[in-house]
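USER: Fancy drafting a protein?

ASSISTANT:
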Amino acid sequence: DVSWIDTIAAGSSGQPEPVDYDSRTVYDQAPLVYPLLTLSDAIIFPKIVAPLVVGRELSLYAVETAAEQGSPLIILGQRDPTETEPAAEDLYTVGVEARVLRRLRMPDGSTSILVQGRRRVKLVEILGDDPYLSAAVMPLVESQGPADDFEPLTRAALTMFEKCIDLDPEIEEEAFVAALNATDPGWLADIIASAL
C-alpha cells in the first residue's frame, strides 16, 4: 500500500484519471500541500476577489508564507465561528485554492489581504501547526452538462438576482454586471452566492 506522500516523492507519471466524488471530479493524483487559512466569518469562491482581515498567529504565518513563496493559499471555512483554534473536524472539507494578490499590515497587528479564489479543493489532511497549518488537498472539477440544459435556469437565476439587487441596496450593481458576463453556470452561481 503506497501512501500519497510516497507518490509525491516518486513524482507524477502521466495524466491523472478522474474519480467520481459527490457529482464532482477529484483527480486521482497525489494531494497538493499548501499553507492553510481558516475563516470563521466568510466564504471565498473560485474566480472571486475578496478582502479579508487576518489576525490569528497561525493564519498570519500561513498568509506570509504563501505570499513570500508565491504559492497558493488553501482557504477553508469553520463550522463553528467561535472556535479560536479549529481542528480538522471543525472545518468544512471543501474549500478553495486562492492566490494572495495584496497584503497590508495594520497598526493593530492584523493583516489585511486581498485574495482571489482559483479552484475548489477537497481537504485530505491537515498537516502540522508550526509555525502555521498546511493542508493536503485534491482539486475538484465540477461536472458540466450540455449548455442548452442550463440556459433556462441561467436566465431565471439572473432574473431573481436582479430582483435581489433591487430589494437590497447593499448588493453592488457590479455584482449583477459580473453575473451577466459569467461564462458558465457554476461561475454564475458562485457570483450570486458571494454577493448575497
Remarks:
- The chain has five helices and eight strands.
